[in-house]
Amino acid sequence: MTPMDDIEAVRPWEDWKSSIHTAVIFFFVFLICLEVCLWIRGCGQKKSLPGPFPWPLVGNAMQLGQMPHLTFCKMAQIYGNVFKIKLGTHDIIVLNGESTIRQALVKHSAEFAGRPNFSSFKVVSGGKSMAFGAYSDLWKTHKKIAHSTLRAFSTVNTQSTKLLEEHVAAEVEDLIQVFLHLSSGGEYFNPFYECHVAIANIICALCFGKRYSHDDQEFKALLGRHDKFGQTVGAGSLVDLLPWLQSFPNPVRSLHQSFKDLNIEFFNFVKDKVSQHRKTYNPEITRDMSDAFIGLIDYGEEKVLSTEYVESTLMDLFGAGQDTNSAALTWMILLLIKYPHIQKKLQEEIDRVVGQGRMPTAEDRAKLPYVQAFIYESLRLSSFVPMTIPHSTTSDVIIDGFYIPRNTIVFVNQWSVNHDVNKWTNPDQFQPERFLNENGQLDKDLIHGVMIFSLGTRRCIGDQLSMLQLFLFTCILLHRCSFHSDPKEELTMNSTNGLTIKPLPFGVSVRARRLRRNQEILG
Ligand code: HEM
């Protein structure tokens, strides 16, 4: 072959490459023009939804950033409290601000009670999750059973509250011993893992009558993998919205795979516990929530839910109950060491009301307004569930004058409510006093303004249990210990992202409080 032959052979390939190149560029220009035309047409329509320009294929995915709730707050300043974004091919409505969110989730409660038809939602709890399931009559029965059973085992009356309280107190006692051990010799440690085990033990005992030691590496590993859950199902996760990302190796595809694996692992854990319960079930004795659900679903008169709902309901409760409260407790420890003067004030109130002769109890709540103000302010400032689980519309609806069609995905930005400058003075500052009135009592109107458990039909069912748990943890920990930061470390409110956001790792050292001879306590 001569050199000329070589050139002749390469030419068609070069020609083909350049025409493909031109075609690809032409295709993208065409897509952009089409998007611009549709966007301009949308802008021209009366009361059409405002929002940023969506790029072809990805929509606004590249604009979300690490913390979508913060991006949405910035977008709300430009477009208003209701706006539209596009992720992949999906139109998504983002709701911000208290009055808009209330209007949607309370006034139009049923219309906003759906969940998007995401493939990841179908993986949760063997495909029969109440938290991630579609809105229907069956779903209403499911939620009712889950809610009433959870209440029966926690806060429905003084007897159940007392039992829960004993349980929490024993768990905090164990946590204190672990904290003191990890702090021996003035060491600093990241409290998240131990908080997670303590909190998971409480819901595990309510669900299955079983708790695990802080040394149990298998239980710790199971809990540790749960982070991938929130990263997948949180609003702004791209796993379900850009399905083409599943076709080649990338972080979103790996996340989805870990999500599927951990759901199987968690579900097997729950299935194993329920199977043991079924074998030893005695209708005369209800040992825990597993027995209660077996009684209601397997043996109940109304056969609305099939038997697999026992496992799925327990998995929903176990999953939701540990991830959220462990994040809350870790934020509270961070805030205690970041603001030592507030920690001191809390201890002073607890010492004054409870003294050293006994442990703090649920009955002390009304007498400890500063402790309660501290808890609400921690929830508000951290807003550690910044966006709810994504919702969807069950029928056409109008919000703030904007028409939203049925089956539209809806993101609800709770963070925007808790950091609204028109609602809170200096919202980025930590000021528990903001919740106290001039008589030092808790301002009931103001505490209801903190949005962390969502609203309406999809509101969290663990709110009362969580508030009681957080109160008891705060009081007992501060009654017995003091918490100290590492002077070499700068403490920030920076966080991980996901459905629940957690503080970045930080160090704490815990010391037992000592009694003075006159019963006053030294920090
Ligand atoms: C401080 C702790 C907690 C916070 C901040 C919290 C917050 C939330 C939020 C924001 C939602 C989503 C609501 C929506 O999509 O609009 C939710 C749903 C849910 N939570 Fe919680 N939660 C907490 C603790 C718990 C606990 C302890 C349990 C149970 C043991 C629980 C069970 C559930 C369930 C079952 C749902 C699904 C409700 C539904 O889809 O209708 N949560 N929670």
From TrEMBL:
Biological-process GO terms, alphabetical: hormone biosynthetic process; progesterone metabolic process
Cofactor annotation: heme
Taxonomy, superkingdom: Eukaryota
Transmembrane regions listed in the UniProt entry: 20-40
Record-listed heme binding positions: C460
Alphabetical UniProt keywords: Heme, Iron, Membrane, Metal-binding, Monooxygenase, Oxidoreductase, Transmembrane, Transmembrane helix
GO terms assigned for molecular function: heme binding; iron ion binding; steroid 17-alpha-monooxygenase activity
Keyword Transmembrane: yes
Family, per entry: Belongs to the cytochrome P450 family.
PANTHER family to which the protein is assigned, alphabetical: CYTOCHROME P450 FAMILY 1 SUBFAMILY B MEMBER 1, STEROID 17-ALPHA-HYDROXYLASE/17,20 LYASE
Protein name per Swiss-Prot or TrEMBL: Unspecific monooxygenase
